[in-house]
Every structure is written in structure tokens, then in C-alpha cells.
Amino acid sequence: MALGPTQRLKDGIVAVETMTRFALAVLALASGVYTYLGVRSILDGSPTGVFFAAIIYSVSVSVGIYAFWSYMARFYPHITSRTGKTAMLFVMAAGAAMILAMSSWLNAAALAGSAAVEQHLSETVEGYSSDLDRAHQNVLAVQSLLPDIQRASERFSQLAAVERQSGSLTGTTGSGSVVQLLAQMSGQMKSLEANINGSREQVAELFEQGQKRLETMRSLISAPGLIEPRADQFSTEAVALTGVISSLSQTSIAPSIRRAADDLSLGFIAPVADGSDANLINRQDQVMATVRASVAAQSKALAKAADEILARPPIVERRFVPLSSAEAVLHYAQDFIPAWAGAISIDLLPGVMVFILAVAHASIRKQEEQLPYAEGITAAELMRALEIQRALSASGVDIETAAAKAEKRAEDDGEPVKDGESAEEPNNITNLDPRSRGRDRLHDDR
């Protein structure tokens, strides 16, 4: 009964040998097929050349995987020494690394390459959308100055009208130097207002174009069909959108506002007082000095607001870099862990079978070592032993006496006799083989 578990393990190993080979062949074939799909996505050239190159590479991968794991399954379970097992484990690790390098990442590209490319396109769209929004906000920031400019323009215009009608500033009605100066300042402010309003329509048109480009790019990402033609069209749209964003950034009139603000203060030219008497001239000079101070304050405020807009980080031109399915899978590997796990499992699953066989063989060896010699011999070995016994008896050798002598000799030498060891010298027992004796008699007859 002690031999039962060992024999069942041996029978099981024999029974699964065919299944093991079949499983290795199927896994190697599956890896080769997905490797073929992955290789085709990264090769360039004529369709015929790409086809044969991919076929040759995938076949080489399949054969290499099948041969490698076949060798490991054949030899590793039977190695018992620690040094041998360590060496074989090192070889297995090196082979697994080579398989990952030449096959697994291509398998992952075949399994999740299209999804990875779509994710790359999606993230690119988000980047372009952010750039478009920032460029639009920078332009709209200039338009936020419009209310201040309108108020300043209206204030100068109202002061000019009041001075013209009632002379509330100088005490004298009419269109004198003060009215001219106030009208001049109001005109400059209205010129800035006109420039801002003029750019608003162009900004709205460019932003609408950018939104349409983004909508087209998003539709290409979610559209059905092969990813390659969609990626090519996406690249075209990306180039066009880059041009729209650049145009939108150049539309900003913040630099023009900054220069105009400097001109208000530095280019201030007050007309000569044209009063009819000294008192009127003095009052006009005082009013114009007040206007000059107001213009300087307005210029400083506009310059500060324009500087804040100009201090915003510029929109760096974004360049779309297309990726193949294999490159995209590597770049976004952390987002496609299930696909990578499946691709790697196809190639390394045979290693699990190798370890199962190693454990089974180790268990068999351990159980056989615990069995007495008499319970561990096979029927053939038993028949051989009986044949030797008959040969010894026929030669007149007393087996018990020979065994006792062998034990005494072993005790004298300090080495015990193991079960199953013969009491006579090996050459003597060999000579007692009936077949050897028959050959000896035939030789003597000759």
C-alpha cells in the first residue's frame, strides 16, 4: 500500500505528458499570433514585405517559446542538486526575460494597442482644449479693460461738454484750450475702445473655429473602425488647430494697450492757453494741469492692467506626436495592466506547469527514499534477484554464509552493509549469471 501514492503520481505524470505538450503548443501558437499582430503595427514598407517579416518573426517566437519550455519541463524536475537547481532557475529567469522582451509587449500591443492609441489621442485633445481656452481667456482679459476705458472716455467727453456750455472748469463758456484738451483725451480713449471692440469679432470667430476642430477630433476618437486612418486624420486636424491657437494668441491687443497707455502720459501735449486775460489764462493752465494729472493716473492704471495680462505665461505651441500601438501600450502601460497581465500570462504560464512537474517528481523521490529496498524494487528487479539466487545455489555458494562474511568484513572496515548489497565481489556475482555461464561453456567448447 505504501507504493500507491508514488505510483499514482508516476501514472499522473505519464497521463498529462501529452496534455502538457499540447498546452505548450497552443500557448506558443497563441503568443505567435498576437506577436504577428503586434509586429505588423510597427513595421513599415510594402504590404508583402511586412507580411512575410511579421510571419517569420512570429514563427520564430512560437518555436522559441515551445522549445524553451519543453527543455525546462524535461530537465528541471529531474535535477536534485542545489547548484543545478539554482543554475536552472537562473536560466529560466533569463529565458523569461527574453520572452517578455521579444513577445509579451507585442502581445499587449495586439490586445490593447488600439485602446492605447485612442487614449493618446484623447489626452492630446485635452491638451489642445486647454491651450485654446487659455488663449481665449488671455484675449478676453484685454476686453475686461473696456469698461474702464469707456468710463474715462465718457468722463473727458462730459467735462468738455460742461465746459463748453457753462464754463464750470474755467469760469468762461466756449470752446477754448481746455475743451480742446478734454475732447482730445476723450478721442484717444474712444480710439482704444474701438480697437478692443474691433478685435472682439475676430476673437469670437477664431474661438469658434477652434471649437469645431476639437469637436472633429473628439468624433475621430470615438468613431468605429481601424485606428490608423483615424489617427492620420486626427493629425491633420491637430495641425489646423495649432494654427488657430497661434492666430488667437496673436490677436491679443494687450501690447497695443500697453503702448497706448504710455502715449497717454508721455505723449501728453497740452494746448497753449488762449484766454483773453491773465486770470483766464491762469485758470486754463490750472485746469490743464489737473487734466494732465488725471491722464497720468489713467495711463498708469491702464499700463498696470496691460502688464498683468502680458505677464501671463504664453501659450507654448503644442506638437502632436503620433504613436504606434506598440509605443502607446508602453507609454500608457499603467492604464492597461489587465492587457499586460494577459499578454505576459500567455508566455509565462508554461513555467507554472514546469514547477508542478518539479514538485511532483520531488514528491516521488521523497516517497521512494522512505520505502524499504524490498518494497521499492520492481518486478523485473525481483526476477533478476531470483535468477542470481538460483545461479548462486547452482554454484554451491551458501548465500547466508556469504552474507555473514560480507557483514563481518563491513564491520571491520567500519562501513555497514546496505540492504540489497551482495555479499560477494561484483565480478563474482556477474560471473554467476546463467547467461554468462552459458557463454563461458560455449567458449570452452570452442
UniProtKB/TrEMBL annotation:
<feature type="coiled-coil region">
    <location>
        <begin position="182"/>
        <end position="209"/>
    </location>
</feature>
<keyword id="KW-1133">Transmembrane helix</keyword>
<keyword id="KW-0175">Coiled coil</keyword>
<protein>
    <recommendedName>
        <fullName>DUF4407 domain-containing protein</fullName>
    </recommendedName>
</protein>
<feature type="compositionally biased region" description="Basic and acidic residues">
    <location>
        <begin position="405"/>
        <end position="421"/>
    </location>
</feature>
<keyword id="KW-0472">Membrane</keyword>
<feature type="region of interest" description="Disordered">
    <location>
        <begin position="402"/>
        <end position="446"/>
    </location>
</feature>
<feature type="compositionally biased region" description="Basic and acidic residues">
    <location>
        <begin position="434"/>
        <end position="446"/>
    </location>
</feature>
<feature type="transmembrane region" description="Helical">
    <location>
        <begin position="12"/>
        <end position="37"/>
    </location>
</feature>
<keyword id="KW-0812">Transmembrane</keyword>
<feature type="transmembrane region" description="Helical">
    <location>
        <begin position="49"/>
        <end position="69"/>
    </location>
</feature>
<feature type="transmembrane region" description="Helical">
    <location>
        <begin position="89"/>
        <end position="112"/>
    </location>
</feature>
